[in-house]
Model the fold of this input.
Amino acid sequence: MRLLDLWDRAKALTESELREAFELLESYAFRRSVCGLQTRGYWSLFAKLTHRLTDSRPLDQLRALIHIQREGNRFPRDEEFEAELQHRDIYNMRSCHYLLERLENDGSKEQTKTDDLTIEHVMPQTEKLRKEWKEMLGPDSATVHKTWVHRLGNLTLTGYNSEYQDRPFEEKKTIPKGFADSAVRLNRSIREQAHWTASEMEHRGRDLAKKALSVWRSLVVSEDVLRLYRQDDLKRRAEGKSVDAVPMTDEARSLFSALRPKLLELHPDVIEVPESHSIVYFAPDGDYFVELLPRKNRLILLLDLDFNERVVRDPYVRSASDRKFLVHATQEGGTLYRLRAEAQLDPAIKLSRQAFELAAQ
Done:
């Protein structure tokens, strides 16, 4: 694997950095799984990411490459990861045992052996709850059960699942080998409770989700590093591509030929990236400012510019929010400009310059 090669052969990673790189990939994959995002094809994605790493600061490169992934492969934010852990059905996730095991052992020098432990529902799974449970949960016991039974706050690990079964909460705590006697750290907060209701489950779920943020840590990358590798990524995407390969009518090509040099003159380091049906222009820091979308007899300029702040006000300017879907667009923006004739080049460039200056800030 490329990461091992960078550590062993190139000495470009310390042992600590190698471990951090693997933890980053683990966090990336697990957070996406919890958040219900696509998890297929990870090995292919990881291979592509690590293949692009060089001997110069590979850990920073990996962080930046993950950060600049498009929406379909994005790294989940802390707030969505934490919310999903608290509210989704955790029990029926394939990684449920792994989640509980990591929460149990992370940060502890004395590791709990979890291979023989099974997942336990503190409030029993069965819908036919005993009288004691119904009384404890209150008049809405059926709703509480349906809502909370498979959530993180109600799940733990035990080696005595068959002994616990659907016993009342007090019995689960006090029977031999019950929660009161358990050496499993996940059970400490459970045995301290006098009752087990939605309130206790919510509180425990919130605490465990908060802890999970330190186990599967967020992606942190400095702006300087991000800027450098965003540029590299854009230049790599542009390699081997030609604006001549983007399909256009003769009318659209003529307008493009007149507009293109003016866009490139905005700054010597403007990055031009031809896509399959459009051409995107980025400021030197890697932020897009305009995408050109060829149409039958015109060009559409999609600008990363608030419509209400535009410097040009003529009939050819439209708010991008008026269009729910823009064919072939790869970016999002606030303003559209319909370029139909070379006489409109000046306002088109004014808008492009405004968007560029905002992107370059």
In short: Residues 15-34 form the longest helix (20 residues).
